[in-house]
Structures are given as structure tokens and as C-alpha cells.
Amino acid sequence: MSDTPNWERQLLEKLATAALVEQRRARQWKIFFRLAWLMIIGVIVVSLFMRHEDKTGSGLAGGSGHSAVIKLDGVISSDNDSGEKLVEALDQAFRDRNTKGIIIEANSPGGSPVLSGMVYDEIRRLKKLHPPTPVYVVVSEVCASGCYYIAAAADKIFVDKASIVGSIGVLSDGFGFTGAMDKLGIERRLKTAGENKAMGDPFSPVNPKHEAIRQQLLDDIHQQFIQAVRDGRGKRLQNDPQMFSGMVWLGEKAIPLGLADGLGTVPSVARDVIKADKTVDYTQQDDFSSRVARRIGVQFAGGVKSLFNTELF
């Protein structure tokens, strides 16, 4: 027992004081985090507002007509939101009353058939809503497969003589490891409920029935692609047996085949076709809010992986 008088009371006072200090610190941290989140939300709101003003007001500030430019660059994939960004940019360009024409500057090897078809349909829908505003595609290096799927919805396609155009086909890739498993003595113990659930499994032997189903899926997607090109290009397409075989052509060869309409660049199309030299870039970039979300966002649920990758490459 301590010799200090009233030591119990002093100990209780110290403990109470420490508890009060700890509560005060907890409140301070809570206030700090609340303020930090409010600042982050405020910056996101401001960045979204500024982004909206830049896109909707950029053409209005000059008071004269302009050519809207939208870049389609890289693989068309949900990973980079390329389809969503392209549709958003198209919508904003069409809604700007000073847009005299839209140029999609394309440089893409293709990608998702779903996203390509969605953008194709959206271009045709927007064109019906805004008939005075033409849409042109200008190909820089490559406009193949899914990219050409999208381009077929435009009023005209312009290329460089050395551009790569075409690849109207569908592929599905994968690997088989059964031979290596046999050599290594590895046994595959796979159980399924549903006879086609394991279709495309790389660790199981090839199943002729599954391969037939897989081929039918590819053929159906290919027919959708072909029909979209026929609807978009119409009578301009020549009757070439290689047209829908997945073949690619240089720009100067694509023109007589009807896959392209002429040689051109973004400045020349803006100047000579749209008759509006001034260009305004409507390409959607990742704003601050998107970058913050990519850095601090948490993936709450993962999607089920597809049985096999299907691309318009």
C-alpha cells in the first residue's frame, strides 16, 4: 500500500484525466477525418463542375462554329472505360449548338465486341436525333476490328494511304495444359453442375461439343459485325471475297473496296469537309475524382471470369 495519503483518489483522478484526454484526441481525429472527406468531396464536385463547363461551354465561348474532335485511342475495353468515354464525348459534342461536324480520330486495333456494338448503336441514335451534324472518322495508324465496327457508323471514313483498315472478324483465344499435366503427373479434379459449365476450361481435354458451341458463338458475333458494316457502308462496299475474312488493307487499298471514302487528316476534314477550321477536343479524360477513386477505391466484389476471351482483334 502506498504511503501517500489519498493515493486511491489521486490514481482515480489521473485515470479520469487520461480518459478525458483520450476522448478529446478521438474527437479531434474524428473532426479531422470529417473535414478531410469534406475537402475531398468538395474538390471532386468542383472538378466535375469545371469539367462540365469546359465541355459544354468551350464551343459557346467563341461564338462561331467548330469541328468537334474525339480521340479513340488504344484497345476498346471496359478496363479503360473507352466505350463509355466515347459515348459521353459524342453526346456532349452533339449537344453543343456550335458543333458543325464531329471527327472521331481513330487509332485502335479493336477490342470488346459488346462495347464496339454499343458505341456503333449510339452513334446511329445520335445521328438520328441531330441530322444536321455529320460524323466522320479519320484513321491515323490503325482502325481494325472493333474500331472499324465503330467507324462503320460514321457518315464517311478518311484514312492515310498507309493506315491499316479492316480485320472484320472475331477470334477467341486460350491455352490447353492437358499435355503438360500428363507429363507432370497432375490430375484435374473438376466437378460441375451443368454439362456446359466448364466449357473452355484450359485444364480439361478438348470437348467437341463445347468447341462446336464456341464456334457458333463466334459465328453469331461475326454475323452481327458483318451486318453492322453492311448497314453502315451500304452500296459503297465492293463484292470482295476477302471483305469479311479478317483481312486487313492499307488505306489506299481500302478506298476502292469501299471500306474508306478518301484520304484525309483531322485538319483537312475540318477545313475542307466540315468547313470549320476551328477544332474543339471533346475527348473525355480521367478527372480528379476518377483518379482519386482509382487510388483509394476498394473493390468490394469481383466478377466471375469469362470462360474464354472474345475480341474483335
Automatic annotation (TrEMBL):
<keyword id="KW-0378">Hydrolase</keyword>
<comment type="similarity">
    <text>Belongs to the peptidase S49 family.</text>
</comment>
<dbReference type="InterPro" id="IPR047272">
    <property type="entry name" value="S49_SppA_C"/>
</dbReference>
<keyword id="KW-0472">Membrane</keyword>
<feature type="domain" description="Peptidase S49">
    <location>
        <begin position="133"/>
        <end position="272"/>
    </location>
</feature>
<keyword id="KW-0645">Protease</keyword>
<keyword id="KW-0720">Serine protease</keyword>
<dbReference type="GO" id="GO:0008236">
    <property type="term" value="F:serine-type peptidase activity"/>
</dbReference>
<protein>
    <submittedName>
        <fullName>Protease</fullName>
    </submittedName>
</protein>
<keyword id="KW-0812">Transmembrane</keyword>
<dbReference type="GO" id="GO:0006508">
    <property type="term" value="P:proteolysis"/>
</dbReference>
<dbReference type="InterPro" id="IPR029045">
    <property type="entry name" value="ClpP/crotonase-like_dom_sf"/>
</dbReference>
<dbReference type="Pfam" id="PF01343">
    <property type="entry name" value="Peptidase_S49"/>
</dbReference>
<feature type="transmembrane region" description="Helical">
    <location>
        <begin position="31"/>
        <end position="50"/>
    </location>
</feature>
<dbReference type="InterPro" id="IPR002142">
    <property type="entry name" value="Peptidase_S49"/>
</dbReference>
<keyword id="KW-1133">Transmembrane helix</keyword>
